[in-house]
Amino acid sequence: MPHPKLRPTPLVLAAALLASAWAAEPQVVKIGFAAPLTGPQAHYGADMKAGIVLALEDANRQNLRIGGLPVRFELLAEDDQADPKAATGIAQRFVDARVAGVIGHFNSGTSIPASKVYADAGIPQIAMATAPAYTAQGFKTTFRAMTSDTQQGSVMGGFVVKKLGLKKIAVIDDRTAYGQGLADQFERAARAAGGTVVQREYTSDRATDFASILTSIKAKKPDAVFYGGADSQSAPLAVQMKRLGLKAKLISGEMTRTDTFLKLAGEAGDGAIASLAGLPAEQTPGSVALLQRAKARFGAIEFYAPYSYDATMVMVNAMKAAGSTQPARYLPLLAQTQYAGVTSAKIAYDARGDLKNGDITVYKADKGQWKVLETVSGG
After folding, report:
1. Quick check: helix, strand or coil at residue 342?
2. What is the pTM of this model?
3. CATH 3.40.50.2300 region(s) of the chain?
4. What is the average pLDDT across 7-22?
5. Which residues contact residue 72 at a Cβ distance below 8 angstroms, ignoring those fewer than 6 apart?
């Protein structure tokens, strides 16, 4: 039996435990990510993934201690192929893998069904999804990385009619949650601004032949054609509009405001108008620096990387504030986020998980470049 004087004091024991904690192997914190990484929308997913990878690397370089213990973030990346069924299967795998949070999915059509799986498991999700339905479900776990279609569609509808003077409009959407939702909001705002929708058509997110739709629309002599969908459709749409001699201006959303659209559409893309959430990158130095890092590391990058970088850092910051990587512990802090990111000096959420900052920038394609027309508040 040790002599009483040789027994370690509580202070010595505490010091030993503290030293042991500091020397412990970092706790692995898994972050899930899902987006289309193959197929015609793979460039969107690659963009989003680039921002997340850089954010987690930056976080790991800080040698963070959360709740007094060292942590190391690990990314679990999945290709959901922009397919809702695949997305729900991936969501369940993330739940089974006990991820601490999810940055994703990219598309509204995948984010919405997957969100139910995450909500049931209590796992926070920050998605690139812009469809109003994503946060309208009432789940406490859903948050956005970008402004919603309600904000973008409302801004663009009024802008096209009042600022551009284009009053006779045909509307086409790809029938996805994103494309149809954006088109619905645009149409509503355009009508409210005094515009007339002369024809409403729909296609699919896999279509590339729009001859019959455009021939029908041409007879109505519209001033503008609004397309709700991705650049893999809006680019051939622009080419076929020019081929048919349709003089209407092509209007679309952020999935068209890409370098990929400019490359695919070529000269036919000149004059196209598209919106994008937030201020122009050159007005947010953090975005410019992040895009430069992403391009140097990963090659071709569009513009989603800064948004996914911020989303990841917001989640990490909430864990730090809560002193815990457990979803139930840090979720309330995530909802109360006040974060200075690379895309905005003040990232904050409303009660639904929508971003409070509703700035929308309108761009015009001009000789292979996107040029700023105007930034409008969509708040």
Report:
1. coil
2. 0.88
3. 21-146+282-348, 150-277+360-377
4. 53
5. 26, 27, 28, 29, 60
What is the rounded CA–CA span in Å between residue 189 and residue 179?
16
DSSP-derived 3-state class of residue 378: coil
Give mean pLDDT, residues 275-286: 86
| Pairwise CA distance, residues 185 & 215, whole Å | 25
Short-list 336, 208, 212, 209, CA closest to 199: 212
CB atoms within 10 A of CB 207: 16
Range with lowest mean pLDDT among 18-32, 205-219, 336-350: 18-32
- Per-residue confidence band for 379, with pLDDT thresholds at 50, 70 and 90: low
Q: What is the pLDDT of residue 188?
A: 97
Question: DSSP letter at 283?
Answer: G
CA distance 163 to 320: 45
Report CA-CA distances (Å) from 13 to 4, 18, 26. 15, 9, 22
Confidence of residue 278 (pLDDT cuts 50, 70, 90): confident
At the topology level, CATH places domain 150-277+360-377 in Rossmann fold (3.40.50)
Element (H, E) at 142: strand 142-144
